[in-house]
């Protein structure tokens, strides 16, 4: 084993932490292996498939012969430039710099491909790295990009580039094929290939693990013509091109210094105004290629300034609160303004009524009590006297009982609930369907499908292994669906879930009163939903971003109630037994992963994500035989194998939504 440069026995902790910008925990440096005479790379790595090839070499999918279950990617580069562009000395210096940038200069980052091994042979250099999804890169992403997904991916790219520049590195080759994805849902991107990167110590604001550049480089290695002419604006230009392609929905196959091709086809590469808010266009005009952005590199902002742009920091906040400032001011006093605030061609009908509610619906009984003053009622159409519906009254508060500020916040909470149920979410089998909303000055009447009178509270005492599994899977699938559209329930309770039948075969979530929208969580949009048009700063400040872990923990408490036979309302120590006789041991395994403490993870411990435990639920616990038990260790092993494909069982609806 041999490491280039001085021997360094210091700790691998960073002198300046990168965690604030997406950095991961620092780890020990990789040592460079040197193949001895007679040794071959296939003694360490077995080639499975060719992934791609370029000017500097080929990339293969491989497995470590000592760990055949772990698939990796290996980049094979000749020591000498086969095309003759570099002298042998310069090519070796380039390879040496690439290895140092990946292994010593930059700390780990979740949006930069992780290096696993470096091997030097007689004629070739082998760089082993984590395997991303094959044949899925930014080229694949552009066509399905919309406001939510584009912001998520672009924010990751900006985070990674910010890290590069903080440590004095310019990637210098940011192209669509050098940005891969860790999953098929385009949730997490990875920047690869530092073969053309530039390192300028004078630019570095941070140093990783006390790295001393002139212990590793000669001065002339860092002061060549290419290095001296390099600029961090190269990466900014590349980001601007990426943003243009995301907003246009396609790669722009032209040289940006000559925009004549684009100008002859203006509609073909025009950013899609129907999908992107004004904040996104403002960023495009700031960093995009001409004619959208500045022509001179000196006019481009720094990466620090880009990170603070409203589209990335507060891109989900709306300018609608300024456009409809008067309506938002009137909202606590007059709910009919909701028709204006929520008006959209895709929204389910909102109808302002000036007469008595009894002219439209006749109340026939009460169904469920909620946290509001009035519960959910049963009613029928006043004209047809048929088609029973559930009617939920959302009324404005009495200003004599609350302060003006409290009244405004309650009105905004109702507005937020209607945005989520009418505009953000499409229909789903386990979420109650809304038919229409009637508006008066004093209330909004939500008319929805009629469910039964029984909730989870009635189900818990009679739940058995098979019925509990069936209902719990329905709830878990519904929560996963909500998270994919960026909705977090926050406060899921048993009375928020009603059954469609007396036999407890099918359930629906009926209450979204505490739900919030988290744009960073969203993977899909419904009917081109633009958060910037509906989500206001005041609503975001009032409700917070929404932690998806809250929903997972709520499901854990519901699972415990199904297994123990009763609901424990407090969040402290459980007093009931974890399970009654007859429950499969795999249910206990799942309870240990998501259940309330002390049965599951403590409150300060991170629990599974919804996608991770859906994998457990569907692939491990859904067994037809009680003899086919699986251990917690096997469950966790399966989760680790699925980690790079978080949503491996969910089809891509991003493009279907468009």
From TrEMBL:
Report the domain of life of the source organism.
Eukaryota
Record-level GO cellular component terms: cytoplasm; nucleus
Q: State the PANTHER family in the record.
A: OVARIAN-SPECIFIC SERINE/THREONINE-PROTEIN KINASE LOK-RELATED, PROTEIN KINASE DOMAIN-CONTAINING PROTEIN
* Listed GO biological process terms: mitotic DNA damage checkpoint signaling
PROSITE patterns reported in the protein's UniProt record: PROTEIN_KINASE_ATP, PROTEIN_KINASE_DOM
Residue ranges, annotated region (Disordered): 1-25
The GO molecular function terms of this record are: ATP binding; protein serine/threonine kinase activity
The organism encoding this protein is Marchantia polymorpha subsp. ruderalis
**Stretches assigned to the Protein kinase domain:** 45-312, 335-645
Task: Write the protein's name.
Answer: Protein kinase domain-containing protein
Report keywords, A-Z: ATP-binding, Nucleotide-binding
Positions with biased composition (Low complexity): 1-13
Taxonomic path? Eukaryota, Viridiplantae, Streptophyta, Embryophyta, Marchantiophyta
Q: Name one Pfam family in it.
A: Pkinase
Provide the binding site for ATP. 75
